[in-house]
Amino acid sequence: MNGVQVSTTVNGDVEEFVCHPGETLLEVLRNRLGLTGAKEGCGTGDCGACSVIVDGQLVCSCLVLGAEVEGRKVATVEGLADGNRLHPLQDKFLEHAALQCGICTPGFLVAAKALLDDNPDPTEEEIRYALAGNLCRCTGYDKIVRAVDAAAAELRKSSKKKASGRKK
Amino acid sequence: MSDTGIGASVRRREDVRFITGSGRYTDDINQPGQTYAVFLRSPHARAKISAVDSSAALAVNGVHAVLTGQDMAADGLGDLPCGWLVKQKDGSDMVSAPHPPLAHTVANYVGEPYGIVIAETLAAAREAAELVMTEFDELEPIVDLTGARGADQIHEGVSGNLAYDWELGEKAATEAALAGAAHVTRIDLTNNRLIPNAMEPRAALGVYESATGEHTLYTTSQNPHLERLILSAFVQVAPEHKLRVVAPDVGGGFGSKIFVYAEETAVIWAARKVGRPVKWTADRSESFLADAHGRDHVTHAELGLDADGRFVALKVQTTANLGAYLSTFGSSVPTYLYGTLLAGQYATPNIYVEVAGVYTNTAPVDAYRGAGRPEATYVVERIVETAARELGRDPAELRRLNMIRPDQFPYETPVALVYDTGDYEASLDRALEHVDYAGFPARRAASEAAGRKRGIGFACYIEACGLAPSQLAIQLGAGVGLYESGEIRVNPTGNVTVFTGSHSHGQGHETTFAQVVSDKFGIPFEDVEIVHGDTGRVEFGLGTYGSRSLAVGGSALVSAADKLIAKGRKIAAHMLEADVDAVEFSDGQFLVRDSNQALSFGEVAFAAYVPTNYPTDLEPGFSEKAFYDPENFTYPAGTHIAEVEVDPATGVVTLVNFVAVDDFGHVINPMIVDGQVHGGVAQGAGQALLEHGIYDDFGQLVTGSYMDYCMPRADDVPDFLVDTTVTPCTHNPLGVKGCGEAGAIGSPAAIMNAVTDAVGDNGLSMPATPEKVWRALHG
Known about the structure:
The complex is a heterodimer. Chain A is an alpha+beta fold. Chain A has helices at residues 25-32, 88-96, 105-118, 124-130, 142-167, and strands spanning 4-10, 13-19, 51-54, 57-60, 73-75. Chain A starts with a strand and ends with a helix. In chain B, a hairpin with a 5-residue loop joins strand 16 and strand 17. Chains A and B meet through helix 2, helix 3, helix 4 and helix 5 of A and helix 1 and helix 17 of B.
């Protein structure tokens, strides 16, 4: 089987890799790039544990081929924090204990990031609907929803500050 | 209370690695030279395996081996044992059918493994597995639980497919009391088969070092020491001292990762056979097919009440599906974890239960969150609710009338348990207040006005956690003790490494246990590290199941801490030239009573390792271990109330309100406890409304993916209102009871009582799917 040469950007870094044509983006991330944050929970796009963002679009990386990300921008949970500074979503997940075993958490964080990028002020119903593609067996979703809501408020506060800072 | 001590909602320290994607689960671990395994699985529910031809598979580039059940048997590996020997009514032992890790003569359920393919890459292993030509002689599968006893025999020597016919309680007295009752309520219930679905599929990575004979197995286990014990003592894969089992970060268990399965057994064996590390990770289809399932009971129950509404007798007859083989604890779940809980919170004087444990050609059934106790609660709380409706009594008040009162503890039930403490009315009252019971008629009227039906349902559950004590459990058939170990190693600089036999796979032990130990020693939370999940680091353990970790594992840590404090007092007394009896330990200081002389915990630890001024009759070092064997179970209990709205046009049930008031005894970390309840309630809501593992008549699993097996999602559940009342456990040092399963135990009955309150009973069974509810409403 011939390999496919792929050049892409992952979490802001240029990455070059060779993968098999049938290899999924999830396999590439985990096995070739050492980014094991995304998990395989089902391999059929039903659980969201492998969620990543490709060119601003939330996708299940188990359903995307590695070869498809040529020239695109991939964002994973590993790129969420700014160095040692956690993203507000991560902060709020920590504050609310919005996770237990942690296996689905990277997927929830990425899906929540995609939601808030698109809708900075979601209602509880919108949060629940947006996260309905991600399965969690531990938390009953309660604390996750509350954490995303709190992170949205935090992000709105800081973007207001930034905006008013710019006006000056 | 300090910010990080007992009772504080400390942020979970394990979360930092999980939210940054740096958790280390079994599938995240790789070894140099690693190969990949794919299992050969039976496509038939029941078939003789007549021949396995692997020649084409072996010709695939990169394939190292195709090993079958025959090869494993030839190597002398033993069967997978069932760890609990149930005695039947007549005193004889249950009939345990042989359970070879890899089937070699007959396959007895779809997905049963009978071989393993090892290759250089996963793709090659998959390709080769497709090329293995296996000849099966199909046999008529026995799938229907109620028909299984009259059907053809699955296992040689197991007449009527009956593993056991078990009973508990006084039959004659119960029947006499029923005969004399003013009213008898009768119900027939099914408790639906569930598929656990921890979000991390099971996985194993086996490594063998030929130079030393050491085997290392990384695997998704809730109890690595038990895994090692069974693999060495029973299956005899490797001697115990040459086998290390590591259960690193584990992505949820809910019972399904307690058991010792075929796959990890085959992986560690194959690693030695091929001389290379072997890795296997289940895909989700394999999880559906081959993880042990849960529940699956059919029950008839009768409750007798006197003219005042007091319960006089409860008789329960249950047929429990055990699947094709007895899984590790499969036999105990429908017996000792079920029949013993049928008193519930009530002072019912006569109780009798009989359980037929039956083999079928389906996946083995074993403990799943709650394990027996949700099934018992479902029987008790559905029949009590039904009785209230039949008699026109308020369901809350009928329960209250029958509850065991606080002044009756310790209370011995007619089904072998002694409840140590509780205040059931306190939880009931708090829950009624939270749910605004008085306001329900108005809410119902508002729903009716909007064209919807509204119902409210109760479950006043009790559970027994922290299985114990060991001697009694072993008398009742347990194959292992039920204590837990803990070791506290105080380092010379005064910080602490704690080794626990409990295993965390979401419970947050790294935080909670550190709270307990830092509180005990009066040292900073940050100075305590918790180690678990590695037989190479932790001396022994029985792992985490049955909500036992804090009550048993936490108590072991308290015992070890007490030993250290006792030793510290001797060291301090010597150094301060005081009498040992005059030295007290408080808030991190060893103090001489009525003086200003004191030594810090760190100073004493340092002295123990640098013993310059040290008692001559005392060993140096500052490290202690303890095995804690509980005197009794703990008995968490509480009231769950569900409120649902039903759309009569579609049959869709919306869970609009859920209140849980639980008595877990003392709570170490309320934030973690709330989360445990939330998760349990969501699983219970899944059982009541969505989830059902279904086999067709051919024994094919028709709910083998997330498209067919409906898991609760974020938009299926509401915000939960959870609260606690406290009656401390009387017999463990922390006064704790356990909180891991309560949510899943109380909620199915509460929700089904609410649904049937809204739409009428009509024989509605779980899960109350839109179709079933619509049919119940429209005939």
